[in-house]
Design brief:
With 693 residues, this protein is of the alpha/beta class. Helix content is 22%, strand content 31%. A hairpin with a 2-residue loop joins strand 9 and strand 10.
Length: 693
């Protein structure tokens, strides 16, 4: 399964489809092209497929930053933001980072790069033949390690997770140079393919024979390509030199801080390598570093890590990117199978309550008071507000990460309920054969007809062709048939109670289904988590559900927000984290199953949110990034705002820019983005129409 090229006519150009990730994009040309299969070895970076075409100009219908390499693989130029650059005739490999698919163009000619409107143009001095190559970001585990029942086997398996690293240089902080750790499954005895070899890093982690400790160090071990040794102490060994991990801040916190510290300094140091770009993170700490990044880049792995450990945490802490994922994992041997997926996202791993039963909470008093004081219409089947059954709802410790996974018993307030089976099902998701994404909207509640506007939001994308089907007042049999259909996303609006979904002729319980073929769902109904859990167990990859009663107005607003966020490339978890801003009850919605699932790919690679406040005669604009599986932590972005040309790490608050109203309007006009305007979630097109008209 490789990216495929097909000719476009009117407008002329190429369409590139990635059947693995269901991603597609178009390149426009100044003439009709006839793509011919080409050699993939001529590109500086790996590509999966390539064609040659004769063109005088290439138009990328979005604003992208462009990198250039020569035949030796050295970076010889870049064009950032609104820069126009001219390049003399020579051999070049031109890199165009287009979100989920990486595109390169090989040319032996002179050309210029310019931008106009929302497009980037590569104009050649004369008509010439160029090679266009594409590579999918898709990355699956290379195989499976079998382990027995003992913790020693689990430690051996985690120690082999570093075999997936594509390099031990600082460039492994780029997600495309970190392979997915091998899968782990329970069996009779330890068995691992010979191809799985831990890299030569001269680094080891010593921990007691306890699953909790092993889970906590799993991401660090993977990223460092470290060995795991059983011992009585918690120690990091680097080139034979020990570093205590049982510090005053606690073992769990120390491991988390160490991973982020090393990762960040790798991002800084890698600017001496393949991508010598102006990285703002380097500017922020370079003067406080006790080492020369160029010298450390060329050092051995252990020498480089020792240099990083000599840097106080206080130097890097203020500048760390917002971490993508915190995973709370119950230290059960069965959960070892989740570690490859957790480590792949470099998650901070915590053990909830040190293995004790999570604390159970009654419905918060402030929620009940709101219902009583406001007379809010609560969406129960009887039409009356009822106390929530919180007997299996838990409240995890808060985290400052973008996403929060709960791999333990109970349904977590404000987090994502995840199981090993949900991770494994991600690997079984079949490749799409066409670009159309199917969406079914089921409305079994007359009062929620306003939510028909969701259909408009899903249909706004200009790259994907959406297949929208809307159903009203379904019977139980009709709803069952919908769940059994092959649907990419189902948005349900109506009532759910302990007996199931309320239908036109009674109740439908998802437990009666043999299978579910809906990839992802939003159940916008009161206390929908148990039925949603059944949908995941029966075959769905993931969805968004509620833990408590929700009133009509918040349900409309959060459903509407989620529709547009998912349609703009946010994952289920990231989309929900943003959508929670529209209502007081946002934390009553959680994701269930695989929260990293994306309905569509983001045009920008990394989905963005603007946090905007008025300031004088202009605006303060903070840009926030939400990493995805295709643009994971460590990717770089350069916002097309003002005249800045610096690059930023893509997670969390990128930077704050002071802009005039004219500059702000121009930026908003380049595409539809979610905007937190004075704390309220709006959209850039609405803002231009209503606030800035």
């Amino acid at each position: 399964m490789r990216p495929a090229f097909e000719r476009l006519v009117d407008p002329d150009g190429l369409r590139v489809r990635d059947p693995i990730e269901n991603a597609q994009f178009e390149l426009y040309t100044d003439r009709v092209v006839d793509p011919v299969a080409a050699d993939t070895d001529q590109f500086v970076l790996p590509v999966d497929s390539a064609v040659t075409v004769a063109v005088g100009e290439l138009e990328v219908p979005r604003l992208v930053n462009v990198f250039l390499w020569d035949e030796t693989g050295s970076m010889v130029g870049e064009s950032v933001n609104q820069q126009q650059t001219d390049h003399a005739p020579d051999w070049y490999c031109v890199d165009l980072p287009l979100g989920p698919v990486r595109v390169q163009v090989v040319v032996d000619a002179g050309f210029s790069i310019r931008r106009s409107g929302n497009s980037t143009y590569v104009e050649f001095d004369e008509a010439t033949t160029v090679a266009v190559g594409a590579r999918s970001h898709h990355d699956s585990p290379a195989g499976t390690i079998t382990i027995g029942d003992g913790v020693d086997d689990a430690m051996r398996a985690v120690a082999l997770s570093g075999s997936a690293l594509k390099t031990t240089s600082p460039e492994r902080s780029f997600p495309t140079l970190r392979g997915h750790p091998p899968l782990v499954e329970r069996g009779d005895a330890f068995d691992a393919p010979d191809a799985f070899e831990r890299p030569e890093t001269d680094v080891a982690v010593e921990i007691p024979r306890e699953y909790g400790d092993l889970f906590r160090v799993s991401s660090l071990v993977y990223y460092l390509g470290a060995d795991v040794r059983p011992g009585s102490e918690r120690v990091l060994h680097v080139g034979g030199e020990p570093y205590d991990l049982d510090t005053d801040r606690g073992f769990e916190a120390e491991v988390s801080r160490l991973l982020k510290h090393v990762f960040f300094l790798d991002c800084v140091t890698r600017t001496e390598g393949l991508y010598p770009v102006d990285l703002r993170a380097r500017d922020a700490v370079e003067d406080d570093l006790p080492f020369d990044p160029a010298a450390v880049y060329d050092a051995s792995f252990a020498e480089r890590l020792r240099a990083y450990l000599d840097v106080p945490y206080d130097v890097t802490a203020p500048h760390l990117p917002k971490w993508k994922l915190t995973a709370d994992i119950e230290p059960d041997p069965d959960h070892v199978e989740a570690l490859p997926f957790v480590a792949n996202e470099l998650a901070t791993v915590r053990i909830p309550s040190d293995g004790d039963e999570p604390e159970v909470h009654d419905e918060p008093e402030e929620l009940a008071e709101f219902y009583r004081a406001s007379g809010a219409s609560v969406r129960t089947a009887s039409g009356e507000a009822s106390a929530a059954d919180w007997s299996n709802v838990v409240e995890p410790d808060e985290t400052d990460a973008i996403e929060h996974a709960w791999i333990a018993e109970g349904f977590p307030l404000g987090a994502s309920k995840t199981r090993v089976a949900s991770y494994l099902s991600r690997l079984d998701r079949p490749a799409r054969e066409e670009g159309s994404i199917s969406i079914d909207i089921v409305c079994n509640e007359d009062e929620m007809s306003e939510e028909d506007i969701v259909e408009q939001f899903y249909g706004t994308r200009d790259v994907f062709e959406f297949d929208i089907t809307v159903h009203y007042d379904l019977t139980a049999a009709e709803l069952a048939a919908v769940f059994e259909r092959d649907i990419d996303f189902l948005h349900y609006v109506g009532h759910v109670d302990e007996d199931g979904f309320q239908c036109a002729d009674g109740t439908f319980d998802a437990r009666t289904l043999d299978e579910v073929n809906v990839d992802a769902f939003l159940l916008n109904a009161c206390k929908s988590y148990e039925q949603g859990d059944v949908l995941v167990r029966k075959g769905s990859y993931g969805g968004i559900v509620t833990l408590a009663n929700v009133s009509n107005d918040p349900a409309v607003r959060i459903g509407r927000a989620l529709a547009r966020l998912l349609n703009n490339g946010f994952t289920l978890q990231a989309g929900l984290s943003v959508a929670r801003h529209v209502t007081l009850f946002g934390n009553k919605y959680i994701t269930i199953g695989d929260g990293t699932l994306q309905l569509v790919q983001s045009k920008n690679g990394t989905p963005l949110v603007l946090d905007v406040t008025e300031r004088g005669d202009g605006y303060a604009v903070t840009i926030r990034g939400y990493p995805t599986p295709q643009s994971a932590v460590g990717s770089i972005i350069a916002p097309h705002l003002e005249d800045q040309t610096s690059y930023y790490l893509n997670s969390g608050a990128i930077d704050t820019f002071e802009v005039t109203e004219a500059e702000f309007r121009e930026y908003l006009g380049r595409g539809v983005l979610p905007v937190l305007f004075d704390g309220e979630l709006v959209w850039s097109d609405e803002l231009l129409r209503d606030e800035l008209a």
